[in-house]
Amino acid sequence: MFLSSNRVTNKILQSRVELHVHLDGSLRHETIWELSKEKGLHLPGNGTFQDLQEAMVIRRPKDLGHFLEPFLISTPCIAGDLSAIERIAYEFCEDKAKTGVLYVEARYSPHSLLAKDCPSDIEALSEVVRAVNRGHARGEAAFHVKVKSILCTLVGTNTGLEVVQLCENFKNEGVLGIDMASPPKSVPKEFVEVPDKGIEVDAFQKAAKLGIHRTVHAGETGSAEMVKRAIEIYDAERIGHGYHILEDNAVYQMALQRGIHLENCPWSSYLTGSVPLSTPKHPVVQFAEDRANFSISTDDPMVTGQQLQGDYELVNNYWGLTEADLLRANLNAARSCFLPQAEKKELLSQLKSIYGLDETDGI
Ligand SMILES: O=c1[nH]cnc2c1ncn2[C@@H]1O[C@H](CO)[C@@H](O)[C@H]1O
Prior knowledge:
Layout lengths: L4 H10 L1 E7 L6 H11 L9 H8 L7 H5 L2 H8 L3 H17 L2 E8 L13 H22 L2 E9 L5 H10 L5 E7 L17 H12 L2 E6 L5 H9 L5 E4 L7 H10 L2 E4 L1 H6 L11 H7 L4 E3 L4 H4 L3 H11 L4 H14 L4 H15 L8
Parallel strand pairs: 1-2, 2-3, 3-4, 4-5, 5-6, 6-7, 7-8
The protein binds inosine.
Inosine binds next to helix 4 and strand 2.
């Protein structure tokens, strides 16, 4: 079928699926400002709102550690404060609805949102998850967007088994899966290491046995080998970023064959230094050409300074993804989301009907 540019743009604008976005990487700068003031927290520069904004948005790519530095300012505003956590989860829904998102999976590390001196026990962690869920539930009702959660363990923290327990306890309350991401401090210099053994591996294998969905950050600034590990050892169904998978054709072919979903985040890929602007062909373009299972997300709008539209514009205007590629990316996301089968089917039919596609369109 012929897809006219405008027609598809308008439809995609109003109906997108986003699979890779950090809830704690989505705080509004105004909210960080208000909470910091209220709590008397140290503000960067001369303490003006402009200085805060300047510190929160990364404009020049360096490395992942640099990209994650703004979390050191934002996280203390919400950690240990259940009403602030509920607030940011609610505001998240409003921001997503404004950018045309129909369905989103928001990820965060419950451990990072505990008060600084609070020992990590399941009850305290559960309070964090409940606060997020309250915010999401209010936001879903107010802004007509569907939101579920993914809980992260952070490399080197060995919190995976507790995260799996939380996923299990909250599986009927909007928590759909587990992720492994990087802590903002002590990011390994060249890549996010995906350990080949230890507690985190046990946690992911346990998650697989329990039917908890799995995604792992790999091949972002790290190598194709990390992606291989994430798939083969962590049983990951989806890969966070995965750009460097293209450096090893055998790993790429294996991922293609298994239909592994690659969660791409265009602005973030540039600002973490993972994919320099000078790269002749962004990996997402290769994924689109190969009809790989990829989608487009924001990662951390608080840090990139971009909402989803900005990421679509970057890949569309700069790297040359077509409207049809973007439409396909959304259908891929709906097919690879962690919703139960019936809800997934419903989401897919909803998208197809909005996009004006039927089963025979072969997109
Ligand atoms: O692009 C990324 N790569 C790896 N880790 C990330 C990225 N963005 C955020 N986080 C990490 O994930 C945690 C839970 O949401 C965040 O606190 C941040 O440390």
